[in-house]
Design a protein that fits this description.
With about 675 residues, this protein is mainly α. The protein has 39 helices and 5 strands. Among the domains are: about 100 residues, no CATH class; about 190 residues, Leucine-rich Repeat Variant, CATH 1.25.10.10. Helix content is about 65%, strand content about 5%. Strands 3-4-5 form a 3-stranded antiparallel β-sheet. The chain has a two-stranded antiparallel ribbon with strand order 1-2. The N and C termini lie close together (about 10 Å). One of its GO terms (molecular function) is oxidoreductase activity.
Length: about 675
Amino acid sequence: MPEDIKDEIASLIAPFLACEEFYARYEAVKALGALTHTPSSAPLLSIAADPHEDIDMRMDAIESLVKINDPENHGAVTDLLRDESADIRLCAIRALGSMGAVSAADEVISLLDRDTTDMISDDEFDWDPQWDIQLEAVRALGVMGDEKAVAPIIRLYENELSYDLSEHVFKALSHIGSPDAIRFLARTLSDGAPQERRLIVQTIAKNKALLKEMKNELKKALGDKEPLVRAAATTAYAKLDEQNALTALNKSLIDPDATVRAGALLSLAEIGVGGTFYEKIATALDDPSPVVRAQSALLSQKCPIEMVRDKLTRLMEEDVDEVASHALNAFASLKAEGTAERLADIALDTNRSPYVRIQCVNLIASHYIDSAANLLPSPLDVEPRQVSIAFASCLAGSSEEEEIEYLVNDLRELTGIGDRAEPPAEKDKGVLELDEEEVRVKIGKKTRMVVRSPGATPGALKAEDLIRILSRTDHPKIKSILAECLTLKKSTIAAAAARAIARMGAAECASSLVTALDHVSPHVRSEAAMAVGGLKIDDNEVTTRLGELATMDRDPMVREASMSALGSGPAETVHKYLQKGLADPELGVRQAAVIAMGNCGDDQAIEPLAAELYNYGDFTHLRPDMYEALRKLDLNRVKTRLLETLSNKERHLDHWVAIQALGNVFG
């Protein structure tokens, strides 16, 4: 936003800080912060300090001063720390911390002393504002980094033992990083409660300077009696220099707690790889804990294949899904001979969990996509549904023309569109297997189900699933069958086809989409309208049809979708429909009209949008969308229109709306 426009608007809003209209004054406070108008600091400070002013307005004035962030204001905001209102003190502390006002450190430190006279109670709950003030003070002092705050923060911690307070105290002291702060953290790490010891270790791990200063303390934490502390220490230790870390972490590999052992493996992997590391991973693959086996399986892909292949093969058969999944992932990455076939076997094994089967299919897609067509059967032959979706997704990612044709045939079978096409390959064709349930035919190198007997059970894959998957590819036959799907009476399939066409940006299907605008199902009409809008079809007849749907269709879902689609049309053509949309009884349709006005750059919409800002009915919910739309239009015209209201004294009750709009549009 050009600074000269912001300054001009702010200078016109600033006088309203002194006006008698409460809402105009309130909106001016927020708008001047959004516009970061430094000259307004003095009146904003005056409002923030006025004990007779509305408390919310005072807090918003402080927030605006934070956005302006002029160092000249730090002293005045510091004075608010002595305000009678706990809300104002709390807001002022946050502001000083956000502004990094180091000059206020002494005043903030003084707030750490306990003052029970500020306690507020009622029948339902107790609010202790001083407690919140102390928490905010600790946070702010950590940002300021003043060493004088260390002793008062420690004193507060010792007097007010609390998990919530501990976290903020440790973080603040780690940021300050003075010798006294480090000694306190070391002492608490040695004899504090388990939760506090773990918090300190986690805090140290996030601070590079502190990590070096407290290296010895971390080493001691590796032998802590609490497993959670030891586990946190193994993670932190990985950030130290390699030799020290290796020596300490090797001991953690034989820790009695599985979480610690798993953490040590991960930390060693972060440090680097080498012969001894490979041996440790291979050994951990035999660990009695599934947590450690899963972690070591995940890391084993860094190892030479001959060291881990046999163990990974065994872990792939485990009933624990996480262990089997990581083992499969590592096994696939090693790309040993026969890996693809083994993955396909597990993917087809109905005795394995769907999670593991899907993992195998995804690994084939990642590592062996060129072989997928020869490894996997038709997704129509696979159950349950989530597994069949994975099969279809993998096969659709294959680069083979033949496989796409198979999937298109599968979609024809699911939808009943036309006759199932003949398989593309003719050579080496013959019946391989015949029983009561199915006939399998070999086509090329692949065996596919082609005909089911009357008693056969179809797979769980739905046409909508396959349409969504096929839309990720760009193939003429897919676009052709999607266009045919638009004509189906089953609304879920036709609607899925419309979404797929929009996702593909298939302009070839434009005429079919336009026809689908007259579908009997409102669900399909709405999806078709959205797709037409996405394709940005520049045709007067299409725009007219969308306009008719947007203004006259009985279903609000269709009107809303059509109104949104008009946003991609030419402003001069769609304006009349969008303006009618502002009068629609449905809020969603009105919202779509507002957004579309901005999207199509309809400068003619400035007047109706500005007028509706002062509609105090449902349109109050649409103001954020109106502001966003106005930002996309001619800003000089928007400014002029809003300032007209601001300068009209007879419309003083509307001034606050104009100020709010100016702050949001130009801020």
